[in-house]
Amino acid sequence: MQLPWLAQAYNQFKDSYLNNKMSSSLIIEGTYGKGAYHLVHDIVKLYMCSNANENGPCNKCKSCQLINEGSHLDVEIILSTKTQDESAITNNLNVLYEQNELGTVRIDNLRNISSFLHESSVINDKKVVIVQNAHLMKEQGANSILKTFEEPPLNRLIILVTKSFSLLLPTILSRAVKLSIENISLDLAKDYLYQNNVKKEDIDIALALSFNAPLQALNLSRDIITVDKQDYTFVEIVKNVLNLFLLYLKTQDESVIDFISKLAFDKRMLILHEIVLEILKLKARVDASNLALISNIKESELFLKQNLKMRSLFNAHKFLLDLEIAEKNIPSQASKANLREFFRILKI
Fold first, then answer.
1. What are the chain's domains?
2. Does residue 83 have a pLDDT over 70?
């Protein structure tokens, strides 16, 4: 166990497994940023270990060694993919640590689950199937695994991973034990980032922009973004955008639009969304010291309160959501025009 906030869910599985009370079908709710796939890795290692006990896997048997090396022939991972051509089935456990939340889970790969589980094991008498991003299964695909999911063969484990239980069909949910990664305390998240060498002054911003998901916050804090041949950390970009945001509201300086438009679409949307949400909270009388981004521009708190209307803020937020939905159909050269429209809506 490397991530302390996963202990409750992991111990719940471990206790059930060691006491022979474990279901053979498991659904884990959680995101990559909160460590859902780290939990999957830890559970699979425990389950496949030949000598598992209260202290966890032995780290000595053949299965433990293979999992430590990153690949196990009795473990199959079905990935969500963006195209039909991508390789979507693997026994490489390292993919669990690679963020992938797009695409779909193909029905032909789901239909492969039953045959894989009925094949003889290579290492010992157990096998595991993991379905990544199970919420991306189409209804036909989910229905294709119902029988196997309800009654897997002996010594077999099926794990579905989803960002929310509510995104799965009730018929799937009713056939499995459910584990959820609980909300992570702010202190625990901050301590994790501090222990991983994130600057103290950057932690709050990284967590705010990752929705308090420590692994996502860690990735953001390490992100290097190049604008006009100059490298910035992600947090430096956020602080720059904050100041430019205020500058444009006051002066309509076109250099602001130019800089922000050069950011990747997802980063731009993420930052602008959070700025708008924090201003809404500020106008709802949340103290600025509790707002990670706004607290970096305290001297402008009064200006934001007096010059931006709640209705305009809500409309600007909706405009950003509409842009995200239409992203694929928006030409890159339209980014500046969209930014001007965003600021126009804010100032109405």
1. 4-180 (3.40.50.300), 223-347 (1.20.272)
2. no
